[in-house]
C-alpha cells in the first residue's frame, strides 16, 4: 500500500489501498478520478454511476478499451484483470476499483 500525500481538489488525500499498476498510470488514474468527482459536484450516492462512467471513458480514451470502474463505499468484488492494470484507491468517502478486463 502506498499513500499519495498531496491534497486534491476533491477535498481528500488519495490513498492507494491495492495496486498492480505502473506508478505513472496509478497517478493518472487518481487524477482522472479527482476530475470526475469534481465534475459531478463531489461524491454523492446519486452520482456514483456518472463518476464511474466518466473514469471508465477517460481511461479507455487514454489507455485503450476494456477498462471497468466501480465507485462506492460498500461493495465486494471478485475480478480478473490484465497484469499491471488494477488499482483500488480512496478519495474521501469514495472507494474506486479500476481495472482493465481480460476480454
Structure commentary:
The chain starts with 14 loop residues before the first strand and ends with a strand. A four-stranded antiparallel sheet has the order 1-3-4-2, with helices on one face. It is α+β, with helices and mostly antiparallel strands and 103 residues long. Strand 3 and strand 4 (94-101) form a beta hairpin. The protein contains two helices and four strands; from the N terminus they run βααβββ. The protein is globular, with a radius of gyration of 12 Å. The protein has one domain: Protein Inhibitor Of Neuronal Nitric Oxide Synthase.
**What's the CATH class label?**
Alpha Beta
Question: What separation lies between the terminal Cα atoms?
Answer: 27 Å
Low-confidence regions = 1-10
CATH architecture: 2-Layer Sandwich
Task: Outline the fold blueprint.
Layout: E1 15-21, H1 23-39, H2 48-63, E2 67-72, E3 81-91, E4 94-101
Antiparallel strand pairs: 1-3, 2-4, 3-4
Helix pairs in contact: 1-2
Write out key terms for the chains shown:
103 residues; Protein Inhibitor Of Neuronal Nitric Oxide Synthase; dynein; microtubule; dynein intermediate chain binding
What is this structure, in a nutshell?
By secondary structure, the protein is an alpha+beta fold. The protein contains 2 helices and 4 strands. Strand 3 and strand 4 form a beta hairpin.
Amino acid at each position: 500500500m502506498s499513500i499519495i500525500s498531496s491534497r486534491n481538489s476533491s477535498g481528500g488525500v488519495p490513498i492507494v489501498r491495492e495496486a498492480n499498476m505502473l506508478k505513472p498510470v496509478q497517478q493518472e488514474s487518481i487524477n482522472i478520478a479527482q476530475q470526475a468527482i469534481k465534475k459531478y459536484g463531489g461524491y454523492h450516492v446519486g452520482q456514483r454511476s456518472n463518476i464511474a462512467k466518466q473514469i471508465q471513458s477517460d481511461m479507455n480514451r487514454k489507455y485503450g478499451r476494456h477498462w471497468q470502474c466501480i465507485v462506492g463505499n460498500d461493495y465486494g468484488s471478485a475480478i480478473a484483470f490484465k497484469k499491471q492494470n488494477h488499482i483500488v484507491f480512496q478519495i474521501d468517502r469514495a472507494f474506486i476499483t479500476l481495472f482493465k478486463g481480460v476480454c
